[in-house]
Amino acid sequence: MIGMSSIVRHIPQLDFLNLSGNPLGRSPIASVNFPQMLRCLVLSNTATDWTTVRTLLHSLPRLEELFLCFNNYKEVPLHPTLAYSSSSTASSSSSSSSSSNPTHSQSALDSFFAWQSCVPSGSQSSGTQSLDTKNSTHTEGAGLEFQCNTALELSGTQSTNISDPKTSSPVHSDLLQNEHLISDLSLQDPNTAISSFTSIKLLHITYNHLAAWDEICNLGLLFPRLERLVLANNPLQRISGCKRKLAKTFPHLRNLNLQNTALAEWSDIESLTALPALTELRLLGIPLMKSHSATERRKLSIARLPFVRSLNGSWIFPEEREDAERFFLRYYMDTEPALQPPRYSELLAHYGQLQQLADIDLRPQEHAQVSVRCDDKVSSCFIRLDQTVTELRRELRTVCTLPPGALRLFHVVHKETAVWCPEEMRMGTRQLHSFGIRDGDEILVERKGK
């Protein structure tokens, strides 16, 4: 770290730093005095833990882009000493005394949103106890900190007013529909602060082991101004949670990359419509798409995502969107109403009842059954139309018992009403389908010089 400190000290205007591949997991990197102008930091494949990442972010107020790929992350704790996710709680329950309390398995992320949500109400009930929240002082580059100073205590059927730290609007405790959420709130350490880093706009966290959506939501709480999130090659299996929670977690996210994740249900894709700013999405390589053709994948995805303007790197133009939405209606037209996607009724109200399109195959014919006439001998042959004239001459030498170079071929079109004049098949490299050969036509073979 002494060498790194010496290097960065002499480059005060440094705005991009790539430390990929350096084993920083056990190094005191947090003690390095990085330039305050640093805008992009790459810590991929460095085994950097979240405590170190958090410490670095506190000292980099202008950092906008952060790369944390290949670091084997399985969880995203909101605090160095607490893992605010259901997966981390479950993994530690076997070795801690908290396993005896069933409420510990409930994600504290849900309780965070329960007291952070702000729902206007016409009347306010007086509560027995309120949760005193306040904005802590801004540390340089740390963004906004919420600190819980007292635990929530509720009794009987009385409702408690919970003030949102941003708007101070009351929220009644009857929104916390069960005692588990309330219990989780009381589990929070009064001396623990949840820090958010508002300068980060781009986060690459690919090739890690993030499988639970709660961990992804924790990223949204740590980086509330996030605009671009790359989650490719993580074993993410489901996108869970209500739409209000998704909207609050990623209010500014406009670009999301979910390539090569483990998403296998259309409901997961439909959940993304709750993200208010999302316009660019990548879904290549997910198991959901494997059972569909390339055309179906794109059209069915576009129809489900009305506000997405770019899918898998390709812009969606109005004509393509209308075509995809009409395709979507016809695709699910014969499906049982109970099994039709929610988007179906919306598009049906917009376009009305559509008719199925006729299935017209415009591909060129691949084979043809023709008659081959050589002198007075007529044979029926099944020929490939993608072969050339020269290849057909070689094929017909067994029928005419003449060398290929000695054959002249003519195409004769047979119609019900007339027989067209023969067309000599001169060019040896020309493919047969270019002559318009169809079933029932005739190939006339003559000897050259005749």
TrEMBL record:
<dbReference type="InterPro" id="IPR029071">
    <property type="entry name" value="Ubiquitin-like_domsf"/>
</dbReference>
<protein>
    <recommendedName>
        <fullName>Tubulin-specific chaperone cofactor E-like protein</fullName>
    </recommendedName>
</protein>
<keyword id="KW-0677">Repeat</keyword>
<dbReference type="Pfam" id="PF14580">
    <property type="entry name" value="LRR_9"/>
</dbReference>
<dbReference type="GO" id="GO:0005737">
    <property type="term" value="C:cytoplasm"/>
</dbReference>
<keyword id="KW-0433">Leucine-rich repeat</keyword>
<dbReference type="InterPro" id="IPR032675">
    <property type="entry name" value="LRR_dom_sf"/>
</dbReference>
<keyword id="KW-0963">Cytoplasm</keyword>
